[in-house]
Amino acid sequence: MSRVIEFKEKVVVVTGAGGVLCGYMAKEFAKAGAKVALLDLNQEAAQKFVDDIEAEGGIAKAYKANVLDKDNLEEVRQAVVSDLGPTDILVNGAGGNNPKATTDNEFHQTDLPEGTKSFFDLDKAGIEFVFNLNYLGTLLPTQVFAQDMAGRKGANIINISSMNAFTPLTKIPAYSGAKAAISNFTQWLAVHFSKVGIRCNAIAPGFLVTNQNRGLLFNEDGSPSERAKKILRNTPMERFGEAEELIGGLFFLADENSASFVNGVVLPIDGGFSAYSGV
Predict the structure, then answer these.
(1) Is 175 an active-site residue?
(2) How far apart are CA 146 and CA 13, in angstroms?
(3) Which H/E stretch holds residue 20?
(4) Measured distance CA(181)–CA(163) in Å, rounded
(5) 205 in Cβ contact with 241 (< 8 Å)
(6) Residue 253 contacts by C-beta under 8 Å, 6 or more apart in sequence?
(7) pTM of the predicted structure, to 2 decimals
(8) Contact 40/17 with Cβ under 8 angstroms?
(9) What residues have CB less than 8 Å from 16, skipping those under 6 apart?
């Protein structure tokens, strides 16, 4: 029996939708029939994806939203309800890292070159920014938009975890810790909302090239950096993922017909990275 996943008449809210990956997710939800609210601090970036969606006959609207400002999110929620209707599916896509919370060195040494930004030099404000953006930037939108989801058939939340949540990567302790918190929070939400019909799951993307990490993965001449070579050596499929390769897992978790009894899982989409010991 063939089964087609569609989200006709569903209202899908995507945070971080001005970014490459979440903007692509929003476009795919629209192609599947959903009415999509694209939320981003950079409304112009989100609007570009809305323009693409509307050009293809879809329904979408961009909203300027700060995922760390609950009052602002409440205003956006009211606008979304007025424009599109109450939320059925929330994708918490806002997140990211910051250079101020990233070390220059992978392993500490006592004779580091002068000017090396070590663990001891990490900026407190940078660490707080990264943790708040990823963790509070998931918790606050959930507080706001889940209010309309209780009791709605097929209502569910998709969070964005990371390979860092399974095993922390070098250099990025704040981002790794924040994504581990997202995986834990996903399980917490799944239990908390289990009596009112809201499922909560997460995807954990492996290594995809985005605007945020391009400078870490490629040299100025376009060749892979040493870090990129390490990633590829430890990804059994020996390549980076593509944005479209997240959609199957995302849609599976979001679709009530496919995943009605799937709740509290974190699904790796990583080319085998999390399964590989390196030997």
Answers:
(1) yes
(2) 11
(3) helix 20-31
(4) 12
(5) yes
(6) 156, 158, 201, 203, 259, 262, 265, 267
(7) 0.94
(8) yes
(9) 22, 39, 40, 67, 92, 93, 94, 95, 160
Distance from C-alpha of 171 to C-alpha of 107, rounded to nearest angstrom = 8
Laid out side by side, the sheet with 266-269 consists of 59-64, 35-40, 11-15, 89-92, 156-160, 199-205, 266-269
Element (H, E) at 226: helix 226-233
Identified catalytic residue from 24, 63, 135, 175: 175
Secondary structure class of 111 (helix, strand, coil) = coil
Query: How many CA atoms lie less than 13 Å away from 180 in the CB half-sphere?
Result: 12
**Which element (helix H / strand E) includes 173?**
helix 173-192
How do the pLDDT tens digits run along the chain, 279 residues long? 456 899 999 999 999 999 999 999 999 999 999 999 999 999 999 999 999 999 999 999 999 999 999 999 999 999 999 999 999 999 999 999 999 999 999 999 988 898 899 999 999 999 999 999 999 999 999 999 999 999 999 999 999 999 999 999 999 999 999 999 999 999 999 999 999 999 999 999 999 877 667 767 878 887 888 888 988 999 999 898 889 999 999 999 999 999 999 999 999 999 999 999 888
Dist. CA 260–CA 197, nearest whole Å: 10
- Give CB contacts under 8 A, 24+ apart, made by 70-73: 70/140, 70/143, 70/144, 73/140, 73/141, 73/144, 73/145
Q: How far is CA 193 from CA 11, 77, 138, 160, in A?
A: 19, 19, 15, 18
174 alpha carbon, distance to own chain's centre: 16
Max CA pair span of the chain? 64
Closest CA relative to residue 183, chosen from 246, 268, 244: 268
Mutual angle of helices 137-145 and 173-192, in 10-degree steps: 20
